[in-house]
Amino acid sequence: MPIMSSGEQGCRVYLITPPRLDPGPFAESLAAALDADDVAAVQLRLKDVDDDTWRRAIDTLRPVTQARGVAFLLNDRADLVVPTGCDGAHVGQDDMPAREARRLMGPDLTLGVTCKGSRDLAMRAGEDGADYVAFGAFFPSGTKDVTATIGPEILAWWSEMMELPSCAIGGITAENCVPLVRAGADFLAVVGCVWNHPDGPAAGVKALNAAIRAADWYRRHGG
């Protein structure tokens, strides 16, 4: 299933897994998060693991995600998408080129491309077949080393100029997401604010959705 852009639903949660996880126990946490409130997509992001580990994680977590009508995407590994029945992939600027990822997956599966804070990279990603572009980091992150952050202005520019959805990433929480939603982000990609929430991942998803809906209402009504 393709990742659904915001449209009438407004900005949506885009959930990224922790880079290290035990698929069996994590499946329960994932199910709780997805059952709590709206999530557009789950991106499986594993670092420094072999293909067997990728496949075991996919086999365990993909059914949990897809059974709930949520797109299941792979970070970097466009080569595994079709063989394992996933819905798409997300590639960074230092990973597989977007055109190659699109070639491997075919025309119908979802492709996201990291564009950092660059308008040129974002426009190139669109030309290369991306279904959404990801901008960031907007805030310091607990999962990646962030040397510099960017402001929400790029989201506003993109939403005014382009129809292709945008995804904001980097240290986003329920407490700081309002400017990104108001600027026109279609998706908020998050890790820590859900998986490290003191009351559990379900509470994290609920809190973020509540903040998104409040900010989106004000944006739509000229607030």
Topology:
Layout: E1 12-16, H1 23-36, E2 41-44, H2 51-66, E3 71-75, H3 78-84, E4 88-91, H4 98-105, E5 110-116, H5 119-127, E6 132-136, H6 153-161, E7 166-169, H7 178-183, E8 187-190, H8 192-195, H9 201-220
Parallel strand pairs: 1-2, 1-8, 2-3, 3-4, 4-5, 5-6, 6-7, 7-8
Summarize the structure.
The protein is α/β, with parallel strands linked by helices and 223 residues long.
What can you tell me about this protein's structure?
- This protein is an alpha/beta fold.
- The chain has helices at residues 23-36, 51-66, 78-84, 98-105, 119-127, 153-161, 178-183, 192-195, 201-220; strands at residues 12-16, 41-44, 71-75, 88-91, 110-116, 132-136, 166-169, 187-190.
- Helix 1 (23-36) packs parallel to helix 9.
Put simply, the count of helices is 9
* Rg measurement, Å: 16 Å
Measured distance between first and last alpha carbons? 34 Å
Report the count of strand segments: 8
> From the helix content, strand content and strand pairing, which structural class follows?
alpha/beta
Mean pLDDT across the residues is: 94
Helix content: 40-55%
Give the SSE string: EHEHEHEHEHEHEHEHH
Overall shape: it is globular
Largest beta-sheet characterization: 8 strands, parallel, barrel
Strand order of the biggest β-sheet: 1-2-3-4-5-6-7-8
Assess the beta-strand content as a share of residues: 15-25%
Low-confidence stretches: none
